[in-house]
Design goal:
heterodimer, A: about 200 residues, mainly alpha, Rna Polymerase Sigma Factor, Chain: A, Arc Repressor Mutant, subunit A, 2 domains, 10 helices, about 75% helix, B: about 350 residues, alpha+beta, Jelly Rolls, Phage tail protein beta-alpha-beta fold, 19 strands, about 30% helix, sigma factor antagonist activity (chain B), FecR (chain B), Ferrdict_sens_TM (chain B)
């Protein structure tokens, strides 16, 4: 590779010792090595997040490239308070961009009644995954806020019914009620395969 | 909820125009997204490669793009008019250029104007009147013609070797199948595994020419080139050239003007059948010659063709036989009515 920093296994130790704040300040002053150090610190985290959200390594790589290129090109214009939340937010916006694009494309495909070639399995899976992510958003929209939060804690943070009850200061019965309700809505609105998944996780 | 509504919701979220309630939904949704997905797993080697690759692409999009951005106003190469003149000169002196191709005898000289760029790309501009030899990090050499401009990295990437060319240069590439060598010019990309070839990429609308001396290369239109979509890549063999015309947006193969002799071969024929002579030419120059073997079977010639070029040899042969030939893409069509049986 043509780089002076990321190529060596031991990049600039000086920069490695810097705080994120130092790096952000140096970045604003056109310090390319600070930029490279930011990349060293965060590329893998950001790639991992984008990959899990999109289930596509290609899209995830594009997001990381685009994000860092923009970070450099707009280094004077951007107001970065804390680096990591800033970068994660940037990934989020780009992930949403990709999903929006997929949604548009899916709509188009549906309208034009094009069917995906059966032998092209990867595409099929990607489309299925998109349906899933957007169907999830659709379903969440239909849930009252409390139900949503209970569902999120249960799914994402793997908290048990008693834990959620304590955390939200509600009875266990109420927690169970919200979970049942969430499942019901999701069952109705999500595709069969997703229901299967949900039942499996439950 | 309709898909368009979902789209609008996401749109509003990105623009910060959601209600607090909507915002929470989108954020809850986002946090749930893919949480059941297994994480991306990479071996240490894959991780290292990906890290380097991504960085390289980021550099190309950010640092490089910026380093080259002042040139938008004032290009890093010489002005367009001078370029057009240089291109016309080279194109006009086809035979001279070919001569140079066959005898690369210009003494290596120190690079004339190597400007080190911040991204560790070296920019070589040949401002002299002679071709200049550049040694690349992998041991490959590039003979850059006068006015030529070569941009190459101080170290090559882990996956491929990439250089950028404006103008004309002759490449002698170290074989390395694991690291394809790519020459980017304005319109086409030439990919090779180890070979020697000439690339002529004048500025403007003059055709781009890739001449192959040894090995084989693949020439494909650059993605960024306008309307490049439909053009397939062509594989170019020795003594062939790919010519890309930006005006007609056409990429085709043809024989070089002066094919070089590729294999040792005697051209002294004493009362030999014509097909034997033609076969010797095919072998020596790696060129396909189409002819009517039956018609020519009875013809014999006595010739000494040692010193002439391929086409001069064919001219002599045609004169002796009352035959003719023409170039057709990468083939030669040899036409003869045959000989009266003796």
């Amino acid at each position: 590779m043509s780089s002076f920093r990321s190529s060596s296994s031991k990049p600039h130790q000086l920069y490695a010792a810097w705080t994120d704040e130092d790096l952000v300040r140096a970045l604003r002053e056109d310090d390319k090595r600070a930029f490279a150090e930011i990349y060293e610190r965060y590329w893998e985290l950001l790639l991992g997040v984008a990959y899990r959200k999109l289930n596509s390594r290609e899209s995830a790589e594009e997001i990381v490239q685009d994000l860092f290129a923009t970070l450099w090109l707009k280094r004077h214009a951007q107001d970065i308070h804390t680096l990591q939340p800033y970068l994660l937010r940037a990934v989020k916006y780009r992930v949403i961009d990709v999903l929006k694009a997929r949604l548009t494309q899916a709509t188009y495909l549906e309208r034009s009644r094009l069917r995906i070639a059966p032998e092209d399995h990867s595409t099929e899976e990607t489309v299925a995954a998109d349906d899933l992510s957007l169907a999830l958003l659709d379903s969440l929209m239909q849930l009252p806020e409390h139900t949503r939060e209970v569902f999120r804690l249960s799914r994402l943070e793997h908290q048990s019914v008693p834990e959620i009850a304590v955390r939200l200061n509600i009875s266990r019965k109420t927690v169970e009620y919200h979970l049942t309700r969430a499942l019901k809505v999701l069952r109705v609105s999500l595709r069969d395969f997703l229901v299967m998944l949900l039942l499996y996780w439950w | 909820m309709k898909q368009t509504d979902l789209l609008h919701l996401l749109q509003r979220y990105q623009q910060g125009e959601c209600t607090p309630e909507e915002e929470r939904v989108v954020e809850q949704w986002y946090s749930l997204l893919g949480h059941q997905q297994p994480p991306l797993t990479l071996t240490p080697a894959e991780r290292e490669q990906l890290r380097a690759e991504l960085w390289e692409r980021i550099e190309a999009k950010s640092l490089d793009a910026e380093d080259l951005s002042p040139p938008v106003a004032r290009p890093w190469y010489a002005g367009g008019i001078r370029w057009a003149a240089a291109a016309a000169l080279v194109l006009g002196l086809g035979i001279g250029a070919q001569q140079w191709l066959i005898q690369p005898g210009v003494t290596p000289a120190a690079p004339v104007a190597i400007a080190q760029q911040a991204t560790e790309w070296q920019l070589f501009v040949n401002t002299t009147a002679q071709s200049q030899l550049i040694q690349l990090p992998d041991g490959s050499t590039v003979r850059v013609s006068p006015q030529g401009q070569l941009k190459y990295p101080r170290r090559f990437a882990t996956t491929h070797r990439t250089v950028h060319l404006k103008g004309e240069a002759f490449f002698d590439i170290q074989p390395d199948k694991a690291h394809p060598f790519r020459v980017y010019t304005h319109n086409v990309v030439t990919t090779v595994l180890g070979t020697s070839f000439l690339v002529r990429a004048p500025e403007g609308t003059a055709p781009v020419v890739v001449k192959v001396r040894t090995g084989r290369v693949r020439v494909s239109p650059r993605d960024e080139a306008p309307a490049a979509a439909a053009l397939p890549a062509v594989v170019v063999l020795p003594n062939q050239q790919a010519v890309y015309s930006p005006v007609r947006h056409k990429l085709q193969r043809e024989l070089v003007a002066q094919p070089a002799q590729l294999a040792a071969q005697s051209f002294v024929f004493d009362d030999r059948p014509v097909p034997e002579v033609l076969a010797a030419l095919e072998k020596a120059y790696g060129v396909r010659i189409a002819y009517d073997a039956a018609a020519l079977a009875t013809c014999t010639v006595t010739l000494n063709l040692q010193d002439e070029s391929l086409f001069a040899k064919l001219d002599v042969l045609c004169k002796a036989l009352g035959a003719s030939y023409e170039k057709q893409d990468i083939r030669i069509l040899f036409r003869s009515a045959g000989c009266a049986p003796r």
